[in-house]
Design goal:
This protein is of the alpha+beta class. The chain has 3 helices and 4 strands, in the order H-E-H-E-E-E-H. Helices cover 26% and strands 14% of the residues. The protein has a two-stranded parallel ribbon with strand order 1-2. Strands 3-4 form a two-stranded antiparallel ribbon. Strand 1, helix 2 and strand 2 form a beta-alpha-beta unit.
């Protein structure tokens, strides 16, 4: 892929049936998905098995990595040829 893209998709209140149609389409087409622990198990269970799933480790009430570390993590992912 010559034009990789990065999309930010919110999981909403945690019910997979409440994701927007666009969010579902983007998630289903992703090659790599970065997610934190605020995303519920019900949504994680619907993520495509073909995508590389990467936990970035944020938990409610505490953050395990600094914002700059999360940014550098996403920048170092193998997304040069895919959709993140």
């Amino acid at each position: 892929m010559t034009n990789p893209k990065v999309y930010l998709v919110g999981a909403g209140p945690g019910d997979p049936e409440l994701l927007t149609l666009r969010a579902r389409r983007l998630i289903d087409g992703a090659d790599v998905i970065l997610y934190d622990q605020l995303v519920g198990d019900e949504i994680i269970a619907t993520l495509p098995t073909s995508a590389e799933l990467v936990s970035v480790g944020k938990y409610a009430g505490r953050q395990l990595c600094h914002r700059t570390k999360s940014t550098s993590c996403s920048q170092s992912m193998p997304c040069a040829e895919g959709r993140l």
